[in-house]
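User: Last request for today: this protein with adenosine-5'-diphosphate, please.
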Amino acid sequence: MEIQTGKEKNTVVVSIKGKIDAVTAPELEKELSNLIAQGENFFLFNFSELEYISSAGLRSLLAAAKQVKPKGGNIVFSGLKGPVGDVFKISGFGTIFKIFETQEDALK
Amino acid sequence: MEIQTGKEKNTVVVSIKGKIDAVTAPELEKELSNLIAQGENFFLFNFSELEYISSAGLRSLLAAAKQVKPKGGNIVFSGLKGPVGDVFKISGFGTIFKIFETQEDALK
Amino acid sequence: MVIPATITLPAKLDSLYDFIDFVSSCAREQGFSNKRVSEIELALEEILVNIFKYAYKDCSFDGEIEITCKLACANSFVIEIVDSGMPFDILSVREPDITADIDERQIGGLGVFFVKQLMDDVQYRREEDRNKLTLVIKDLAIMPDIY
Amino acid sequence: MVIPATITLPAKLDSLYDFIDFVSSCAREQGFSNKRVSEIELALEEILVNIFKYAYKDCSFDGEIEITCKLACANSFVIEIVDSGMPFDILSVREPDITADIDERQIGGLGVFFVKQLMDDVQYRREEDRNKLTLVIKDLAIMPDIY
Ligand SMILES: Nc1ncnc2c1ncn2[C@@H]1O[C@H](COP(=O)(O)OP(=O)(O)O)[C@@H](O)[C@H]1O
Ligand SMILES: Nc1ncnc2c1ncn2[C@@H]1O[C@H](COP(=O)(O)OP(=O)(O)O)[C@@H](O)[C@H]1O
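Assistant: Here's the final one, the structure of the complex with adenosine-5'-diphosphate:
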């Protein structure tokens, strides 16, 4: 897993490459906790280069969403492909979160 | 395993790349039998790109040597490196066969 | 990997990728598509991580997990996962509410659900003090959709 | 590969590379040099090919071979090879005459000899109708000579 973060207006764009699984999810969770501790509340996850996500990854994402929500924040996603799109569908994450085709659509 | 053969005067130069093991030795044995059936009696094995040889490979080489010997033929080797050199040493093949540093030395 | 094939490794996160590589290699050899192999990997990760986390938690030693890949009748590919941890029947787990929104949504509870969704059949037996979970993936003979 | 690790595959030539990859991966993880790993691969090939050829030759079914890699005391890496074929004690095999010249030299008989030459220790036990061959490779702690 490779995490890249950048800022677009008030939104942190988090682009993740590779796999979010039980081995790598703790690293993502730490990164997100740090950003939230620094006051960030709006996140866009660009998953166009993400190949795989397991429930360990979804757990980290939901935990982050539960932290920013009460502070008026929000988490959205873009670029889900293949297996990652399937996991979002099966888990219901595809309906409880807002999903955009592309990063550009999401930032509009 | 990749076998390349060429002829230098009366000697067939057999260059072998990769591994001669229990899986690949039968192919070598077939190739050598064909050449011997065609009347070839002198062989130089260039092993400078051979990485590995097991007893299955030595078996094929000795079988070929036993076929050409009574017809006045001969089998020699060049370019043994690392593990292949060690196997020739341990097995005694390094003393019962003539071994040259390089293909050029062998063809002199 | 030629099958039937069995691998046994310590029940800890360090083994995860070795287990997954083993099973993927067996599944690919059977001609499954990349998509189906990825689903098999996901189901397997969920089961293994649960065994790492829960099965041996009352033990003071490192437990083991044994995985066998083999064929069964009716063109099925079968993955058997055996551990000696506490008795646990995956089929007894209640399904999560996947429609609850972010505030009410429980964290966790998706692993077992994924396994049941993605595998064609899941069987559990407690046998000689071991949990034996059997995953069945059907339609071996159907042409893979990606190659 | 994390160890202790065990793999079981059919006793046939198709399994050779899977067995070798498994053991090499365990050995590399312990930091052995390329040279030592290559020697381990050679000893392993010789033993496995013999089991493929001889151990199950009176059986009508495909036998199996189980290989375990683990650590033992005194910085040793241990490879256990178990089959259910005919009883065969590798230590009982006579050494070949490696000085005989081409005409007198017997074809074959080198496999077992290589194993004994290359491994630091070789042990055999017949146990519960199975052959259990143990290869010991010492000096785990010594710095590898190639990396
Ligand atoms: N191998 C196991 N041994 C004991 N309990 C288990 C095992 N696997 C799963 N469980 C139980 O089933 C529950 C549901 O598992 P799962 O769906 O993977 O969600 P999560 O692990 O996120 O809670 C776990 O919380 C745990 O209590
Ligand atoms: N697993 C085994 N079961 C029965 N006999 C064996 C086994 N391995 C080796 N042997 C016997 O030991 C002999 C020596 O084996 P080896 O040194 O590998 O030489 P080769 O296989 O070329 O004869 C074989 O010829 C065979 O008779």
